[in-house]
């Protein structure tokens, strides 16, 4: 009977761990099953940027659940989480116009800044910004710390982990694995970009594919804060909240003229600080079976543009990697119930870390977010 629990979570990425955390808070017995021996998927490859404010209006309730969950988990497990917000320099009048419209739309969630103020906040007083914004509700975590710390804390709290155990099928409360069957009253499946391996029909129905992103870890010069989070004009064109503003089409036209190389590699130029250094990226390419190669021109472009904004004269690269996350051209979230006891949850855009505790709440409560 030890193979039976109230809830089985498949996947020890941040979405699976967040779901397990919420179920543990409810007093349920939980088992987490993962084919790896620790969290090594998308959840440790990202910026650690909890970008609640820039997401679509329709997901803001879920974002509030997510933010509260992040704060409770950080408090319980003792990992670093900074409520330091995001800074966005506006380098052109069109970028500033999008920020003004967004501030008008969201009120207190957005503070407009002068050019000198946003430069100072980013540690680069010489930045020739025409203005900017601070999004005070956004948060920072260290992706290399948060998921492993949360897993270790859940383990200490009595959540059972089955590592090195590949799940081969899930249905009606039975989870078949390479180490035999496990049963539970309810199963939540969070396999990230490996959805195709477990639920191929679902993956095909949503055209789920793998997005690969060129990333780098630089040495962080002392003038840049560990809790730094910088979004840029490309982010304003990309995240649904900003992209819904009336001036967003004009911004996309301007970016195509001003920064064609960034547009070509589908960049979301951004940077965050972590204890290990400065994370910069990223580009986006889509494939069912991506090749592992990093394009050096793209990597250099992203480093060049981000460090120019941050006043880093001689960037020192410590690591490069090709990150991966699940993507769909049709939806930001696959949240399906193939049978009464199984929920499949995959965030299919680059905001799964941000929304993890909110999506975990949806998976456990049975709520849906139509139109997201
Ligand atoms: C470069 C990059 C930057 C990003 N930046 C951000 C950001 O700043 N903010 C943000 O919100 N999001 C960001 N994202 C997206 C975010 O990282 C992901 O959306 C999120 O981590 C997905 O979490 P997950 O738990 O669903 O997936 P994962 O972390 O990939 O975890 C899935 C787990 O499931 C396990 N698994 C899969 N199949 C099986 C199976 N059959 N049996 C057993 N185990 C299985 C895997 O081993 C893995 O451990 C970024 C992603 C990348 C790659």
Automatic annotation (TrEMBL):
Report whether Flavoprotein shows up as a keyword of the record. yes
Cofactor(s) the record lists? FAD
Record's keyword terms, sorted: Flavoprotein, Oxidoreductase
The Swiss-Prot or TrEMBL record annotates one GO molecular function as: oxidoreductase activity
Q: Which domain of life is it from?
A: Bacteria
The record lists the organism as Corynebacterium maris DSM 45190
Protein family per UniProt: Belongs to the DadA oxidoreductase family.
The keyword Disulfide bond is assigned to this record: no
Extent of the signal sequence: none
Entry-linked SUPFAM superfamilies: FAD/NAD(P)-binding domain (SSF51905)
Could you identify this protein by its name?
FAD dependent oxidoreductase domain-containing protein
- One GO CC annotation: cytoplasm
Domain FAD dependent oxidoreductase, by residue range, is: 6-363
